[in-house]
Backbone:
């Protein structure tokens, strides 16, 4: 049996958000998929299972008040890193940068871990 390469799976995943087409996700999410969102800090929301991940991502695809923009994708074997910008409002500073660390098995996403820069200032150790 032949499976889509990791790059093709991740391209389809990204296109779902850019084109606002949740149907593009249907065949690329595995039954045992585990996703961790960027919020709430510090660990994010953990979503387990194909349908739960499809529902979570589908809601993000359908949200017309926000916009996801992939910036760079790096693929290495069954792993991919997606650097992105997420626009959550109309203002010039209503966005955040982040990355998703993805794992693909048998042509389907089985792990998606999200990380982002936080809004607002976080004191550095040198600020004491």
Residues:
């Amino acid at each position: 049996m032949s499976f889509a390469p990791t790059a093709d799976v991740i391209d389809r995943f990204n296109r779902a958000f850019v084109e606002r087409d949740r149907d593009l996700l249907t065949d690329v999410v595995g039954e045992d998929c585990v996703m961790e969102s960027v919020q709430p800090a510090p660990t994010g929301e953990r979503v387990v299972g194909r349908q739960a991940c499809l529902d979570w991502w589908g809601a993000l695809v359908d949200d017309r008040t926000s916009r996801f923009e992939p910036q760079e994708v790096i693929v290495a074997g069954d792993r991919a890193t997606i650097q992105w910008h997420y626009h959550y409002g109309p203002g010039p500073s209503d966005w955040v940068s982040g990355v998703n660390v993805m794992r693909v098995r048998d042509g389907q996403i089985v792990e998606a871990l999200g990380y982002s820069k936080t809004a607002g200032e976080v004191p550095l150790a040198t600020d004491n």
